[in-house]
Amino acid sequence: MNGIYTVANDVVFDQLVAFLNSIEVNVGSEIPVCVMAYDQRIDKVKAEISGRKNVHFLDDPSIFSPWEDFSYRCWQGHPNALSRWQEQGIKGVNRIGMNRRYCAFDPQSPFEKFVYFDADILVLNSLDYLFKQLDIDDFIVYDFQYKDPSHIFNLKSPKLLEIFSKERIESEIFCAGFYGGKRGLFSPEERDYIVEKLNSGEGEILFPPAPNQSLLNYLKMRLKLPVYNFALNLPPDQKTGNSVTSPHFEYKDHVLYDKGVRLTYLHYIGVSSSAFTRLCNGENLELPYRDIFLHYRYLHEPEKMPQFSGKPKPYNPPPTVMQKVMKKLGLKR
User: Fold this and answer.
1) Given this model, what pLDDT does residue 316 score?
2) Residues forming a β-bridge with 261
3) For 311, phi and psi rounded to 5 degrees?
4) What is the distance between the alpha carbons of residues 229 and 138, in angstroms, rounded to a whole number?
5) How many angstroms separate the CA atoms of 207 and 203, rounded?
6) What are the pLDDT digits (tens) for 5-34?
């Protein structure tokens, strides 16, 4: 059985609703979707998906625990990540809830072949071609993260190019907001091998600000699991961007086009969940591709869509002169 995974809690409730509605419209209401609990702030999430027959909720410690333990053992190999997180009041691995997406690979997981999306994504096209590629390849991605490895690995580490070649780094890394794979990848024996390698000195190449994304890239590359990236393999006239950082997409009939080609998904990367909450609470914020998000968020309750007047204000305004001065003086972080 094929299906879609995401990870969510009540903090990203508005994004989750938009995400599920976009799947319903552009993929279909029959495809199974599994929402994995990020943490225990899940009351609104559970209430929302209870009325969706194709969506089920996964909050199973017996599946989560082995992968969370794996992540902790991996990060023990980093020189100072765990101690830094502890100083910040974080117990264990930072944002460990995102680690639960690894459970898609677990033998107990429900889908034989799957695609994973972060909840801050709108799915805007059929996914048939993705699942078809998974008949050939075990791991697929569709993004341009390979152009910027600085958010995947520690580029200052002298070990990095000893472990992975420049050519591999420039062609195999990916943003973990979307990928596709198969149940059963990354066996316990393979995970033990990864822990051994990281704790033998390779842990320093990991990138702590993106702990799960960095580890997943390392895991896939260290095991030499081939990756098929549509961004590198599609003909130029068929590939599209997928990030809100690209300002040129055309909005038409509630989907987006990149130079006439329909996007598969739009990732609101870099836009905080609080910005979506404020927007849905009626604050007139200038979010990128705001209209399409609001369309899907309120697809089934258009009467609740906030009405705005006047000029919207930036959701992430630049710091004021006073804020800059205080930061320079060390008075404000």
Assistant:
1) 77
2) 258
3) -85, 130
4) 12
5) 9
6) 999 999 999 999 999 999 999 999 999 999
The pLDDT mean for the chain works out to 94
Look at phi and psi of residue 224 and say left if phi exceeds 0, alpha if psi is from -120 to 50, else beta: left
109, exposed or middle or buried, with CB in 10 Å at 0-12, 13-18, 19+? buried
Q: What is the largest CA-CA distance in the chain?
A: 59
Give the separation between CA 295 and CA 297, rounded to whole angstroms: 6
Q: Which of 125, 124, 93, 131 is nearest to 2 (CA)?
A: 131
pTM given for the model: 0.93
Residue 202, SS3? Answer: helix
Under a CB-based contact definition with an 8 Å cutoff, are residues 180 and 130 in contact?
yes
Q: At what angle do helices 61-75 and 188-199 cross, to 10 degrees?
A: 20
**Vertex 271, ends 332 and 109: CA angle to 5°?**
120
User: What are the helix (H) ranges across the chain?
Assistant: 13-26, 43-49, 61-75, 81-87, 128-133, 160-163, 166-172, 188-199, 211-222, 230-233, 273-280, 290-297, 321-328
Q: Return the domain boundaries, the chain.
A: 1-333
Query: How far is it, in rounded angstroms, from Cα 92 to Cα 25?
Result: 39
Q: What is the CATH number of domain 1-333?
A: 3.90.550.10
The whole-angstrom separation of Cα 53 and Cα 56 is 8
